[in-house]
Amino acid sequence: MELESAFEGYATPSDESYKTRGEHAEVALRSDPVVWCSAQVKPLSQAELCAYEETGFCIVRGLVPLQQIEACKNHLQTFTNEDQLKVTDNCRFVTEANSTVLRSIFAIHEDKSPLGELARAKFLTEYVQQILDDDIYVHQSRVNLQAPFKGTGFSWHSDFETWHAEDGMPRPRSLSAVVFLDQNAEYNGALMVIPGSHKSFLRCPGRQKGANWEKSLQSQAWRTTCSVDSFRHFQTCPIPEVYGTPAEEHLRQLAESNGIKYCTGAPGDVLFFDSNLLHASSGNRSPFPRRNLFVAFNAWSNRLQAPFFSEEQRPEHVAHRQRVERFPRSA
Ligand SMILES: O=C(O)CCC(=O)C(=O)O
């Protein structure tokens, strides 16, 4: 079957650059800038911007005061109460597969809480505005908990590949800010990245029918279903699903040529990384938690359209379209 006909009925991207979810895995060159500003030297210096452009990420040490980090962690304790989780809107909370252990909490920036405040803090948004050179908004926010002994990690992926295919984000004018709430080390599931991989676009195979998000938020390698009234009890069956998962051969080639880097650091450090950077994390078999706040920002000029390669668009709490607050660059 021709690739064209496989995508019949989907929204048409403005060009072919980020075609994905076809018959075959392929590697394409990114056709957009990484750093969109030209000469601004604050908060990142010109040298830091150049390094970000080259590697696709940077870590700013000690950006968040420890007091604020402690307040966030105290607030997170309130989410471990099962009764509270049961009465809250269902799929905002994602558990580890076949488990009641909490894996992710979505739309955290909307909460009136220390975590919500941190996700919208000016000292984060000014970095993002500098790199993207635009007004910005939160596309997605979540806390990933990587629980001691139980965290199962995330397979290799480019966020932008999913955001483009399933959310309708036109271009990779977007990035994530990751606030380390705990020490992030190799042994407790620190994020791994392939430096420089953001310059390639890895087209992922697998034509998608129906919603992929219920499955992919738990694991990109297993099919799971989530029933609405028993959201804490996912059923997992061993059928591999590959939507949004790059080919292992392409990952191997990139890792061989560019290496793999662990993004380790202390509470209060912040990792900024390009939306097309390949990243993953191993599970957490240590007795120490690895809780991180992820805030994905998109340029205001790059707001979502219809999904480019998916029949269903993901829900608001996973990809914001309606409930968006604009952070103007000059504010
Ligand atoms: O928390 C992690 O280890 C990885 C999370 C991730 O890749 C994501 O949320 O897209």
UniProtKB/TrEMBL annotation:
Its cofactor is Fe cation. Gene3D superfamilies: q2cbj1_9rhob like domain (2.60.120.620). One of its GO terms (molecular function) is metal ion binding. It comes from the Eukaryota. It holds the Pfam family PhyH. This is L-ectoine synthase (N-acetyldiaminobutyrat e dehydratase). It comes from Cladocopium goreaui.
